[in-house]
Design goal:
Alpha-Beta Plaits, binds zinc ion, Aminopeptidase, binds calcium ion, 2 domains, about 375 residues, 5-stranded antiparallel sheet, single chain
């Protein structure tokens, strides 16, 4: 039923449309035209205005042709990690990649293309289905910005499937961590490094002492922490008066995350205080954790559909967030389905044609099962 040629053509066409975060307008227009041709109800929200982008989230709906089936949504994101204005794509047998000079954009066009193909198959074969929503987001890669603005209250789905992780197709992400950002400014006192060093308080030294005794990296099986940047200082002849450190911590257990963050802040405060320096701290929550059980309906349907197609089902916990964190936090149980996107965020990014096909078939099987057909 899946039309491989059409699917591959769609995937290549989508990859050829440059769509870095906040510059998704062209790919959005192409996808909207396609969905309208298929007869879906398509609307956009106003996310672009809020986040400073040239495109909005797209919310499309295919009304049910089976009564009583649960309403479900599928989701993918339009943006790619970096611009690829003239991506050179190479197709070698089953493998699609670039010439190595840019990303491919399979993250997340390997989610988008199979979704379009599945909608084609449903419409052209008049397959039985409940209400289906497509939530296609902007600016996922720079902080899930689109999904955070998407008016999910208008979408009455009971479960969701985000197509946005790597192979093997059949893998399902059922949980992801909470992720917090930490910005710390350590403020010491400037002084001439040669004439009067004893009058200075080195922010670099205070911050370095704090970081040196901090627990970082993998804290335990569900918690990680990292210092990402350390900026400050101008000249060798000045005792450095101020540094800014940007850090993060993540955990599948929000209590453990809060303990780790408190530990990091305490290290800065104690070492600064010992030297007479000041500390300013800002924390912000990037996204909330979720964890779905094996018997959650959304996990059951994903699992049984994968098994029906002999895909290697495996429930996984992610180390990072996706739009699914936002949709779960807004109240709709949502898993992440694996697609063909491989080596994402690198110039070796690639995608297998067979994985595009498997992803489209998996979506169709999920639709079929959800409809009780
Ligand atoms: Zn992605
Ligand atoms: Ca990504």
């Amino acid at each position: 039923m899946v039309n491989t040629q059409r699917l591959v053509d769609d995937f290549l066409a989508l990859c050829r449309i440059n769509s870095p975060p906040k510059q998704e307008a062209k790919v959005i227009a192409a996808v909207i035209a396609r969905l309208q041709r298929l007869g879906l109800e398509v609307r956009q929200d106003d996310a672009g205005k809020h986040i400073g982008g040239n495109g909005n989230n797209v919310i499309a709906r295919l009304p049910a042709n089976v009564r009583g089936a649960p309403s479900i949504f599928f989701s993918a994101h339009f943006d790619t990690v970096e611009p690829n204005p003239d991506v050179q794509i190479i197709v070698e047998d089953d493998l699609i990649r670039t010439d190595g000079s840019s990303i491919l954009g399979a993250d997340d066009k390997a989610g988008l293309a199979p979704l379009l193909e599945a909608m084609e198959c449903i419409v052209e074969n008049n397959l039985p289905h409940g209400e289906i929503w497509l939530l296609l987001s902007v600016a996922e890669e720079i902080g899930l910005l689109g999904a955070k603005h998407l008016p999910l209250q208008d979408v009455n789905a009971t479960m969701g499937f985000v197509l946005d992780t790597g192979p093997p197709v059949g893998k399902v992400v059922v949980g992801a961590p909470t992720h917090d950002h930490l910005t710390v400014r350590v403020i010491g006192r400037a002084a001439h490094a040669g004439a009067a060093p004893e009058q200075g308080i080195s922010a670099i030294v205070a911050a370095s002492r704090a970081i040196a005794r901090m627990k970082l990296g993998r804290i335990d099986e569900e918690t990680t922490a990292n210092i990402g940047s350390f900026h400050g200082g101008q000249a060798t002849n000045v005792v450095c008066p101020e540094v800014e450190i940007r850090a993060e911590a993540r955990s599948h257990n929000t209590e453990k995350l809060e303990t780790q963050l408190a530990h990091m802040i305490a290290c800065f405060r104690e070492e600064a205080e010992a030297m007479g320096a000041q500390v300013e701290v800002e924390t912000s929550r990037h996204y909330e954790a979720y964890r779905l059980s094996e018997d959650a309906p959304v996990v059951q349907i994903a699992r049984e559909s994968a098994r029906a197609l002999a895909l290697p089902y495996e429930a996984k916990l992610a180390g990072g967030g996706s739009d699914a964190n936002v949709y779960n936090a807004k109240g709709i149980p949502t898993v992440v389905l694996s697609t063909g996107m491989d080596k994402v965020h690198t110039h070796d990014e690639c995608c297998r044609i067979s994985d595009l096909e498997k992803t489209a078939r998996w979506v169709l099987e999920i639709v079929r099962r959800a409809a009780g057909a």
